[in-house]
Amino acid sequence: MKLRISDQSKGGSNLTSRRKRLTRRGISVLPTALTLGNALCGFAAIFVAAAAHRPQNGYPLPMNWSPLTFAAIFIFAGMVLDGLDGHVARLTKSTSDLGEQLDSMSDMVTFGVAPAFLCIQLVNVGLPFFGPPQDDSIFNRVALLVAFIYVACAALRLARFNIEHAEDSPDHTSFKGLPSPGAAGTVASLTLLHEHFLRQSGIEGYWTLSLTAGVMVFVMLTAAIGMVSTFRYTHVLNKYAKGKVPFHTLAYGTILLILLMVKPQLAMAIGFSVYALSAPFMYYYNKIFNPAKAADLVVNTDLLDSVEPEDLVEDDEDDTPNRDAI
Fold this sequence. Notes:
Elements: E1 2-3, H1 8-25, H2 29-49, H3 67-91, H4 97-122, H5 138-168, E2 174-176, H6 180-199, H7 206-227, E3 232-234, H8 236-240, H9 247-262, H10 264-289, H11 291-294, E4 312-313
Antiparallel strand pairs: 1-4, 2-3
Helix pairs in contact: 2-3, 2-4, 3-4, 3-6, 4-5, 4-6, 4-7, 5-7, 6-7, 6-10, 9-10
């Protein structure tokens, strides 16, 4: 069994019509600028993080922040722009396929590549596989490979979302798998916490930095697996920030905002970490104590579910033994 391929003339006419619509309608300036700003924030995070281990030569950065602190803030700035571009596009009635694709590419830079590079700069992996012997340790190799895994999982997560976002939740109150901004926020917030409590307080030592490096690599791997998982993650803004909410939800949100103002690095690290672990924790907790509810905490759709039945045609009889596998 295989997918039916449309004739070339039909495909060419559809492509031509899409090009004509794009040319006729033009490109919306404000949503596109916000989306591009997201991509540029990701590039800025990578650029600044690259200077993490360079000597400052007596010229500290503004506010005496470290390069990794600025890199993490650029990731959060990209997160804000990523949240704004879609709302602005809907308010101005300028949503388009171009904007959707541009948004995914920007997210790949800011929430895929930048957090992975930020993490390996934090743990200072050096140049394993290719560099000097002191850089080619087992831990550095593992850390670099985990960064590769994170980037790959982010790409898969974004590609899957483009295909399946209509199936995640009818009212879009949940995601299939950890959203890439949530994964990036987990890595970036823990980096901020590290820079604030360890570097700024001067609490540095071999065992402290080694433990921090191990935790960060583990967090990055966990976030990568979460992105490609089928756990159902709550869309926090759509579920709790729209319309009326229960009193206790408002109270918890107020407490979180107060904590954020008192200890922003700690509050952000706890918030993103709890969110990243919330879906698997609730699933396994209910699987033990409430199995009936556990089934609702995973999304069991598959990529082939998006293929319509009429798009499938039977192949030659020689392929009959393989139909069940497809």
